[in-house]
Each structure stands twice: as C-alpha cells, then as structure tokens.
Specification:
Helix content: 40-55%
Largest sheet: 5 strands, parallel
Oligomer: single chain
Strand order of the largest sheet: 3-2-4-5-6
Number of strands: 14
Shape: globular
Structural class: alpha/beta
Radius of gyration: 23 Å
C-alpha cells in the first residue's frame, strides 16, 4: 500500500454549530460544515463572510502618515512639481506602480514611473536612481511595494532636497527610514485594522484618499496584485479580490484582454486561479528576465494593437522563464541530492543562476524536500550572492534571518518568503545558524507536510447545488484556502494522466 508523505488532519466540525448555520443561513450541511471548520460559530459573522461587501473597506486615513503623504502629494500637484513613482518588478510591484501612476495622472500631476532592473540595480530604491531623479528635477518620490528598508536612500533623498514618501507592506526593519512619510500597515505604531494589505493594496488606499472616493476603476489592479502576492484573503483583502475579479469579468484593459486571449481564457471564466496561474506569472516574467517595463506598459496600454504586441512579448518571456526554471531546478536538485544527509535548512547556489527566478526554484525545492530553502545566484567577481528564501509552516523565515543580520547587509520579506544579499564567504555560517534555529523551533511533526481535510463527505451529498454553495466561499487563497474534500469509501473506475505532455 502507498504510504502518505504528509500528515493528514481530518477535521471534525461541531455538528450543533453546523445545524444552526445550515438552518439560519438556509444552506446545505456541506456548506455549513465548511464554515464551521473555518471557525465561523456566529451566524452573523458567517453571513458577513458570505455576503462580503464594501463595508469591509477601512478608512484610508487610519494608516499612519496617510494625511502627511496626501497633503504633500496634493501640494506637489498644485505647484506643478515633478513626481516619480518608484516601483518593484514583481506582479504586486507593477500593478502598484500602474495604479499610483494612473491615479496621479488622473489628478493632473506631472508624473513618471521608474522600476529598477533586478540584475543591474537589485531590489528596492537606490542612490544612483535618486540622483538621476534629481537631475530630472523630481522633487517628490513615491515608492510603491518597496522602500521600508531604504534607510540610506532616505538620507540621500533628504540630502538632495527630495521629499520621499514610502508606501510599502513588507516587514519593517528595526530602523524605519527617515522619509517625509512612511505608509505601511505593518509598522508597530500604525493601527490600521488590516496589516496584511499587499503593496498594491496600500497604493489603492493612497488613491482612495487622494481621489476622495472609492476608486472602482482600479479594482482589477488591486485584485491582480493582491492575489499574485499571496497575502491573506480575509476581510478587506477578500472584498478587494472578489470585487476585482468581478471587475475583470465585466471589462478588461486592452493589454490584460490581449494577455487573457493569449492564454485562451474567456471573460466569464476568470477566477482567482486565472490571476494566480495565468496573469500573475506573466506579469512577473518580464521583471524576472530583464526590465519590468513591458508589464507596466501592458497594463497602461490604451490601444488594442499595442496590447496584443505587448501580450505576445510577455507570453514569450514567460515561456523562456519556464525553461530557465526547469533547467535551474534540475541543477539545484542535483546539489541537494549530493548531501549525505539533507540539512534542516537547504542552501544551494551556483555561479550565473538567473536571480530573477531563484524564488521559483526555492519554492520547487520546498515542495520536493519540505525544508526551509534559500537559493543563491553567485557572482565571484564581486564576492556576493543574491538569494531568495522560501519557508515551511512553523519556521518564520524573516525572523530567523533577522537573527543573522551580521552576515546579511540587505534582506527583507515575510515569514514565508524573503530576499537577501550576502557575501559568498558567509554562506556556510548562515546555513549553520538557520539550521540551528530550525532544530530549536520546529517540533518533530512540523518537519512533515500537513494536509488538512476540511470536509469528509458521502458521494450522495455532492451536487451541483452544494458545489455552487462552496463556490460562494471564494476567492480562495492564503488565509482562505480552497476546501479539501475527502470522499470516503469510494472506488476509482479509472486513473489517467492529463495535459499536453501527460505529465499531470
């Protein structure tokens, strides 16, 4: 008999709660059992979840420094100052950049945007880009989805006479940059009710405050960035994702429509999976291989023919990215297999590995070996390594890396993912320290992947109606995963591989 590689957790719902929810909400036992499993014991709370609406949206001015940021931006627009939106090269970054740029353009601002090149400039704001902005007579720089670690760059901006407004959502370091304003819901002294906004979510809140209305025209962008960046789809995030998917179904920007056509996806079929597995990876592909500009141009494009051309470019880049990932993943797996014993924390690296896709390779290794993993692109000419880290449940990668700051001049991220730059000579020490932390913090069972079964159902309980009710729980994602359903005591009539290459 096949042995499972995971710990199965078959959850049991409180049937008294299930019965109350089923009766009061007039839904099937299957749907009410799912709600009970997700912690909904109160009928009204469950009703609000099912009927998520604009009441989930919080006041933008609850974000620390929002008033300062908005006041300075309005002043810059009124006096015709040059504003630069400084973004990031992933899907969250390009949607954030596009959203902020479009908002400021709508308000009549003299605005441009800039996204650094991953390979020549690295992650985040940099001094050279700021000095170039000053030469272009920029007096206000607004970062989106980046900047919370830019302590040195904030000093440079101050020296140049540029007012730096940081909007970000990444974990704040011990020292917050001395910028004109810092808008980040994760700051300790920020009391915004939703600390889990994506970068595009923070940009959306700035747009909300600047426009003095709910900016429905940007719901598609906030949904794409929010879903692609894997932030928890709860509360406000869930509403923004759900409303944004609906907006995408009703009308697409020319570039996004061309991209969906390229994928063979019809408007009525758009779901969170469309964003997560079709749109997101393609928006990411440009910045992973070269400049992110084509992805931003695709979003901003107002011409159908331009949109088609850009969609073709981006789709080709994504295919190239897929091949690079497959080749690198094979090389990385070979390195792991060369260990006598796979260490608690895997660190692999190689000269010349594409720094734009090392995060995907790290995810592949976590999937295969279920160990916290860092994949490094080594550059012997500078003695530096650029890395991307992915973690497992129970191991906080950001906090663990925070205990290794002596070897990490630059890093940032989240509990489950992080990026870093370090000296090649310190790799071994970093691995030893992280492995030590992992052994101290993870219990024996946490070294094995866990799979939680939300619902154990009988075949006769499954119907089109019950499936439709479960679909009301969408959009699914981090914080609200799609239900895992176990059909007990059934026999397969056939099993076959699917896909063009029959590899699924």
């Amino acid at each position: 008999m096949l042995q499972s590689k995971a710990r199965w957790k078959v959850l049991k719902a409180d049937e008294s709660i299930v019965n109350v929810l089923s009766k009061q909400l007039n839904i099937s036992k299957l749907a009410s059992r799912f709600l009970a499993q997700r912690g909904f014991a109160d009928v009204e709370e469950a009703r609000r979840f099912l009927q998520t609406d604009e009441t989930a949206v919080h006041d933008a001015y609850l974000l620390k420094d929002m008033e300062k940021a908005v006041s300075r931006i309005r002043e810059a627009i009124a006096s015709n100052e040059n504003i630069l939106v400084f973004g990031d090269y992933d899907a969250d970054g390009v949607t954030s950049t596009s959203l902020m740029y479009l908002t400021l353009r709508e308000l009549g601002a003299n605005v441009g945007y800039y996204v650094p090149n991953r390979f020549t400039e690295g992650y985040g704001p940099n001094e050279q880009a700021f000095r170039h902005a000053k030469e272009e007579d920029v007096s206000v720089i607004i970062t989106v989805d980046t900047g919370i670690s830019a302590v040195h760059e904030a000093e440079v901006a101050r020296e140049l006479g540029i007012d730096l407004i940081i909007t970000d959502h990444h974990e704040p370091p011990p020292i917050i940059p001395d910028a004109y304003a810092v808008v980040n819901p994760k700051q300790e002294d920020c009391h915004y009710p939703n600390a889990n906004l994506a970068g595009v979510g923070v940009a959306f809140k700035v747009a909300h405050a600047l426009l003095e209305r709910f900016p429905e025209e940007f719901l598609d962008l906030v949904a794409m960035g929010t879903i692609a960046d894997l932030v928890p789809l709860k509360g406000e995030n869930r509403y923004l994702a759900k409303a944004g998917i609906q907006a995408l179904m009703e009308k697409q920007r020319p570039g996004i429509k061309a991209l969906l056509d390229q994928c063979g996806i019809q408007a009525q079929d758009i779901t969170e999976e469309t964003v997560g597995f079709a749109i997101g990876p393609r928006l990411n592909a440009a910045g992973r291989l070269d400049s992110a500009d084509p992805a931003i141009q695709l979003i901003l494009s107002e011409d159908e023919h331009d949109g088609i051309e850009l969609a073709l470019i981006i789709d080709d880049l994504n295919k190239e990215r897929q091949q690079i990932v497959n080749d690198m993943a094979k090389e990385a797996e070979d390195q792991v297999e060369n260990y006598d014993d796979i260490p608690p924390v895997i660190i692999v690296g190689q000269e010349g590995w594409n720094a734009g896709v090392i995060g995907i390779v790290a995810s592949r290794l976590v999937e295969k070996y279920y160990r916290p993993t860092i994949v490094l692109s080594l550059d012997s000419s500078t003695g530096l390594a650029k890395g991307s880290a992915r973690s497992i449940e129970g191991f906080d990668m950001f906090q663990s890396l925070s205990q290794c700051r002596q070897w990490l001049p630059h890093f940032g991220g989240h509990p489950m993912a992080a990026g870093l730059t370090m000296k090649i000579e310190h790799i071994e020490r970093l691995q030893e320290k992280l492995s030590e932390i992992a052994l101290e913090t993870l219990s024996e069972e946490e070294w094995q992947r866990s799979i939680s079964v939300d619902l154990t159902v009988q075949l006769e309980e499954v119907s089109i109606h019950s499936i439709g009710e479960l679909q009301q729980m969408s959009p699914f994602g981090v914080g609200n995963p799609a239900p895992k359903v176990m059909l007990d005591q059934v026999e397969f009539t056939s099993v076959k591989k699917i896909g063009a290459m029959e590899d699924h």
